[in-house]
């Protein structure tokens, strides 16, 4: 992956998962009793942060304060997304240029169906509390990242 990644390029969610897994190559993967499930994440988001979330077809949907659509899915880990519909071409270029730095923090930008999307991946062996911390950090960090990307 390192050889194929160039400054300003996009990274797929599959590559992001592989990168996260490679950072944990010495970790023994075990089934955790408190592994995160979408229903449990949904319930905790409502109770802890009073967020209006909807669980539909194995996906959690919710809105950020600025009405960006966010979602959480589980496909070999927990995948968190924020879709930034208001991003123009200049904002998308700034966002994609940030990928190398963001990847080190577990984030990556991509473009899906013409919409700029910020991704975060949580490995399947992480505990429920680690997953919830990652979701909370995603809220906070994605707000900052969006302000930086959308700045004129």
Automatic annotation (TrEMBL):
<protein>
    <submittedName>
        <fullName>Uncharacterized protein</fullName>
    </submittedName>
</protein>
